[in-house]
Amino acid sequence: MSQVSNSDASAKFAIELQGVCKSFRRTQVLSNLTMRVERGKTFAFLGRNGAGKTTSIRMLLGLLNRDQGEVRVLGLDPTAEPLKVRARVGYLAEDQQMYGWMRVEEIVRFVAPFYATWDHDLALKYLREFELPLATKIKHLSKGQNVRLGLVLALAHRPELVILDDPALGLDPVMRKQFNRDLVTHLQGEGRTVFYSSHLLYEVEPVADEVAILDGGRLVRQADTETLRRDVKQFVLDRSALAALRDDMSVLELQRAGDDAAVTVQNASAVRALLDREGIGYRMNDLNLDEIFAAYVAGKVDDDAGARAAVDELAPQR
Amino acid sequence: MSGVWRSLLWKEWREQRFKLLAITLFTATIVAWPWLFDSNGTLYEAFVVIGFFCILSLGLFVGASLAASERSQRTVGFLQSLTHSTRRTAIAKLVMAALTVASPGVVLFVAVKVWESLGYIPANHGISAAAFAAIAWAAFSFAIWVAAIAVNLDDEVRAGAVGFLAVALFWGVFAVAVDQWLPASEELIQAMAASGPGGPLLISIEICEAPQREFALLPPRPIGRLVVLAAISTLAMALLYVWHFGRVAPAQRKSVESTAKSVVPAWLAPPMRKAWNAILWKQCCESLPLSMLGAGAILCVSVFIAVASRGDQGGILRDGLLAMSIPVWILIGGLVTIVSGIGLWLDDLRPELHMFWRSRPIATGQWFVLKFATSAIITLATLALPSLVIYGLLTAFGERPVWNLYGGDDWRMPVLLALISQFGFFCVAAAFMAATRRPMVSALLTIFTAAGFGFCLLPPFSLEATGSAVVIAAISAIATAAGWLCIRNDWAIGR
């Protein structure tokens, strides 16, 4: 096994996790989690509620210790050097609350001295762009203003890595779109690494370069968005053809569609080639990230054996 | 009983049962004391401790919890969304609060009866069941006043501070009124006292004094009228509480603010220079209002009492005011330091705020030390200010030196001891808050600790002043170390 902490890897990757495990008492929250996030990319970290996203993020910030494995953030071990990591990372938590009695201006001035790289002019620029009222107390801000203020505090020290944990949770659709627009404008435009955790897929789809899907504490897929869209497709075909193809399809989800079967696979190119070669009629549907995610985490098929069993079950009995 | 009532009472029971258990165990420990150490003479001291504990501390903290626990847990919205009225929840809360404040009285009553049967208490020293009931009622009355005055405030700390200040002001105004306008009418004075917060205590005093009056061949005083007045007052406050409970619209102001077009100025004040600067500023903003409120209460109550008793003193701005301000400072200051100790971590350890500061490059040690030291200094110094100002005025006007008042240099040790005790309250309350993250539980545990220490002053330990100071300093040091471990490692009981 290669060491994840070597300098080349650190220069290339903003985040590296190798075989990370974490349990709370008897509940295994993360199981052998291994992934890497390239610098400069917007990385969507997807999973259902309770999949282990927030636990992973807390480990990245050195707020939780891992049971096993290795974690590197910007080349640093967050457990050993949490303050150095946090100084270089911008973090916006899920449903972020701030001290309600402080005014917007006060919290900006309060947070500033904790960061050596704080750019006060940049903070003012963001405050203006986000139309945040400086003299208003935080407890009187709307939900959207609260999230945008959190973003200002996460970005004004020009972090190399920005970690967003379901930041748009609770915002209305218009605000969510605006938030994502802000994100694209201010982060992707400047080439920062963004680690975006969410369970709202349509939210991250337009901005993500790469996607990781976490389910039950295990990483079920990591790929760049285009590859994922290319690899994962749904084929609608006659159920009688299923049995013949079952060993060659990497099935994620299988549904009955009248007399036909709708099969979502993660090796679409190979399956398409096979179907063409065998002369089996089919219809191929492109899937959006939402549907791909659902196929990975909500599909009934857990492994190859399970896939074969599901195919056998759906295929007509001879 | 309908399903809704069953659900509401079950919820309250689940939330309050450990408090109830803790209070009952605490009381049982107190009443076991004379038996354990074969010192019958401490029965009445224990009774006084229990009475004081019930009326002031328990009433205050139960009242604060009644007033603000749902808001501090952000569950008011959920309660409002249920199909039944929030007033039913309020009534269920009152039932559990009554049980909580009654439990010490019940335990004490059973213990006294056991002692009587064992011959520990002479027949003519027995305390009637009615007196116990009146004490429990007094505690409930105090709690319901605090709850009615502070209902729907943001958290228990604010509710406790506001409720206590209002009650203190009530009694201060009462004392002045009695002194100014009602010197002749004892009946009216009694009626007013019985109607006030904790008023049923008067009924228990009347009940306890009845045998002595009988022994002195004096006619018995009728207490029926006092009972009716106290009942009307308690009921009125309960109705006020039930009427207002949960009737909050937190989003109202927010929406007004957020829809208003705001103009962002072109200039932003420069950032704070250093991290320690920022932490100091934040802690000053958090600690000063409560401390100043406490100092104001000390000054007001001292002035009221001094004015009320000016006939026995040499003048308002003389030894009378100073004499009053020191015990008032010791009493109110003790409670305010508990509230301040809890307030030290109340915001920072809220689940939704906790991650905000922990995820920043903030050294936990620096955060802990600066917050703790700043809050302790501000609280202790501000609370001592009224007495110091009065002392300064006395000295400036060349009035009688203060040491004559307390007999030579003897005043120094009690004042020093009170100061150390307040620091101890602060440390222990802050440690319990860090460990439990629950304000009401922390307050009760702090009071238990203080009462436990109080026993060290009784036989067989009978600690002297120096010994007491050493023990308090040791408790404070242990509590501070425990609090630090909890904050550093993000430990909390029951997480």
TrEMBL record, chain A:
It comes from the Bacteria. The keyword Cytoplasm does not apply. InterPro entries: AAA+_ATPase, ABC_transporter-like_ATP-bd, ABC_Transporter_VariousFunc, P-loop_NTPase. One of its GO terms (molecular function) is ATP hydrolysis activity. Residues 15-241 form the ABC transporter domain. It comes from Lacipirellula limnantheis. Keywords: ATP-binding, Nucleotide-binding, Transport. This is ABC transporter ATP-binding protein YtrB.
Automatic annotation (TrEMBL), chain B:
It comes from the Bacteria. Keywords: Membrane, Transmembrane, Transmembrane helix. It comes from Lacipirellula limnantheis. The lineage of its organism: Bacteria, Pseudomonadati, Planctomycetota, Planctomycetia, Pirellulales. This is ABC-2 family transporter protein. The chain crosses the membrane at residues 20-37, 43-69, 90-115, 127-147, 159-178, 223-243, 290-309, 321-346, 367-394, 414-434, 441-461, 467-487.
